[in-house]
Amino acid sequence: MSTRNARCPCGSGQKFKRCCAQLADTASATALADAAVGKRIQVWAAAHHRDALNAAWTQITAGCDDALGDADVQLIATWIFNDRELEGGGTAAELYSRLHGLDAEEREIAARIAGARLGLMRVVRVVPGLWIELEDHTRQDLVRVVSRGVSAHVSRGDMIVARRMDGPPTPSLWGPVGIVSADTGPSLSALIEARIITLGLKDATDAVAKAMHSASMEVTILLSPALRRPVLERRAA
Q1: CA atoms in the 13 A half-sphere facing the CB of 15
Q2: Structural domain of 29
Q3: Angle between helices 185-198 and 216-223 (to 10 degrees)
Q4: Residue 205 burial (CB < 10 Å; 0-12/13-18/19+)?
Q5: In this structure, are 140 and 174 located in the same domain?
Q6: Is 143 within the bounds of a domain?
Q7: What pLDDT band is residue 194 in, cutting at 50, 70 and 90?
Q8: Which of 114, 131, 152 is the last residue of a domain?
């Protein structure tokens, strides 16, 4: 991370404090507000849809005998609240965002969280500790997302599975991020291609987005070492 009076590492030629530092500071404050709303979504869902959440947990962890690490739990929890449709339609995040009585800011943040769907993206450029420029294969565009944590652990050319969350103030990433490895890449590609064919989306511009959403549980399993192991063992048997 640059000192605030040094040249900004993004290459703008400006001092860091007058360039990306301002963006990073604003994004950090926004991330705290987003996380607080995310926690309230979980608390509300646990109070009103506990049985459905427990059923979702049982469904995705079926056959897993390994102890789940923090990363596994975060992956599963994000799938449950962002992707798993509840009875009557809608995810927990979507239903929370539609509740009566929410103030405008709470509703706006909850809607942004609900809209953060799984995406497949390639890292084009990265400034560690600040932001990542991504080629989003799901939305078919180029986007710069602010993420201090993830930007410190990815490199140019990496393929990642992540949930892109729109601003304001700027696009960011919601929840855990999976780096597609040599082990998971072929399985992920095969899964997406098969789902595109099954859904009849071969010529659709949003084929990858719809396939990722439809296969969100399977994608989550691929990203989790603890959940992935029994699946690979069954295939090898």
Answers
A1: 6
A2: 23-114
A3: 180
A4: exposed
A5: yes
A6: yes
A7: very high
A8: 114
